[in-house]
Amino acid sequence: MAKLKLHWQILIAIVLAGIAGTLTGTEGSVLGIAFVEIYDFIGTLFMNALRMIIVPLIMSSIIVGIATIGSGSDLGRLGGKTILFYAATSTVAILIGLFFVNLLSPGIAGGVPVGEQLNLTLDSGEVASAVAAVEGRGSGDIVQIFLRMIPTNIVSAAAEGQMLGLIFFSLVFGFFMTQIPHRQSEALITFWSGVSETMMMITMWVMKFAPYGVFGLVAETVASTGFAAFRPLLFFFFTVLLALAAHAFIALPLVLKYVAKVSPMNHYRAMAPAMLMAFSSASSSGSLPLTMKCVEENAGVSNRTASFVLPLGATINMDGTALYECVAAIFLAQAYGLEMTFVTQFTVVLVALLTSIGVAGIPAASLVAITVILTAIGLPVEAIGLLLVTDRILDMCRTSVNIFSDSCGAVLIGRSEGELGILESPFEARP
Length: 431
Description:
two-stranded antiparallel ribbon; about 0% strand; Proton glutamate symport protein; single chain
């Protein structure tokens, strides 16, 4: 197993986890300990290790990246390219979702809305959990996204995982670190470079345990939910998957091939471990260490570009999430029999784009974002409970799309910066 490449190890772990979770279910046990508890322990242990390294890794990467970029004009140019790419790909993702949900109309069967078939008047437990997740939240959360960018206490922001605030502080600190006298600046750059190198070594060490962590995460999910829970929402489920696949295997590869001038197949190979990690963990931030490793070592992007583009992307670039929000909101509207005009659908697109920008920094991420959309088009938020049935698997899929889009952005921006390390066939150029 240790001789295999990491992505093969993770893929084997996912397959074995599916088998183990199906066989043991929630009832299986050994020595009085339920298997599902063992799976949960292994998965939680691994995710805790990943979360442990996220804050110092992001801070040191961004600070060193900003210091390496140099002048304010360079920073503005790189930042402008990054924001433009992320806004463009998120918009394209939403429009793809809009196309497929209107084409396939998963909320309508035989010309009749499926709301009654799907029992949208959920039982009290499901309604309570859905409402509790989004209680007291609404369109004001969009404003909170921007307020959260400037934390009142950077230490508490780091402790609470408020990535937008952490990234903003790191950007400001890295920029002004280069404006002080050379002697002090050199000392700070040396310090943060040392922290960055150390964190990357810790990351590589943690990644050795990725197959075991992935096994625990996936096995626990399969054992708890099984596969039967997805049947009532199968059409919606596959509509989302089809839209995500179109974005990940058509739209983004076209950008790689014709804009970045990079082989899409080589890039898929380069990013396979990170995409599988994102799929199993359903966390863009949790997958960030491995994403950075793959982008730098396999795709040939410089640390200067990757350390700026990827941490920013893990927070604000949510292509898969934005697409899912759009499809989910219109699916529920169709199920309720609500007629969706062009203006209403445009509202969905706009709100999905705005909420996806800061969704990683919001508790109950996609649920809160969808709540904002449902409120905007006049649907009851209780309908969100219906989406919980398929949310875990779809969350895993859309997270993989999120980090793949981040990596495409890093490659494209790196190429535009004249980085010759990004080759047509990076695996042939590296031992």
